[in-house]
Amino acid sequence: MNVPELVLQFLEPLTLRDLISATHVCQQWRALVPKIDSPTRLRLLGLSFRDVTSPHPISLSVRISYVEKIETKYSVVIPEPYRTILTEWPSSQPPPGMHWPHSVRFHASGFCYCRRGSDNSPDRCSCEGEDVHDVLMKMPEEVYRLVVEEGVVPVEEHERDYSWELFDKPLRLYTPEQNSQTMRFIRAQPLAAIEGRGDRWMSLKFSTLRLSRYHVHTTLDDNRGFQTSDGIFVLILDGPSRGQIHAWETDTWYDGFEAEDFWEWNYL
Q: What is the residue-wise DSSP string for 6-51?
């Protein structure tokens, strides 16, 4: 085994901070670092040489403590690349083009992002204890059959089956692109994900990690009156959609696909 191969073996398990240091050792090491088998670390390495300023910096030690809390308390492993970004990005500023989610900000500073007042308790913060929880995607069995068995987007002609709640509901669920993503999401789930089947209705259950609250401004719809979209972006923790980011208005009211993974998520 020659020297470059030995050096590459040494570089492979290094954390992002150590890889950054390795690029300053010598020209040979700088040339070998990009050859390691770690796409997430290499992408972060490329971003580490760019300046970024965020109004909500969070130190690496605090982010590591957040990951330890989540994974210990709930016996889960946070999906990549989100986990590596939280535990290895050396700066307190987020990587360029990203932000630290509300849930991490709550852990760091007590920043409240819950819907205070919705339960007539405006002085009570409910952010604590809501990090990991199950959410349901509820739909009539006929809608599920049309999507899974026939590959049909059940809109307009299937109004009687409440399909508009998943495929034609402003503000997020009404575009062809979002409908296609919703169909893909449903069809990807195994039968084991089905929860509470019966009485014409069924649900798909997902274990999720809360990220940030979103709010889309209220609009006036000619047919349905005032429409709002307010809920939580979550990271899917299990199944074939693990690592994807989706939106839920409530624990049972799905509000659409957001990103394939944390790299693609640009909600601010």
A: HHHHHHTT--HHHHHHHTTT-HHHHHHGGGSS-HHHHHHHHHTTS-
Which of 43, 39, 21 lies closest to 30, judged by CA? 21
Q: Among positive and negative, which fits the CA dihedral 89, 90, 92, 94?
A: negative
pLDDT tens, 60-105? Answer: 999 999 999 999 999 999 999 999 999 999 999 999 888 999 999 9
Cα gap 41→114, rounded to integer Å: 32
pLDDT for the residue 185: 95
91: CB partners within 8 A, 6+ apart: 48, 52, 57, 60
- Residue 24 has phi, psi (to 5 degrees) of -100, 0
Which residue has tokens 């049909």?
152
The two tokens of residue 70 are 């989540």
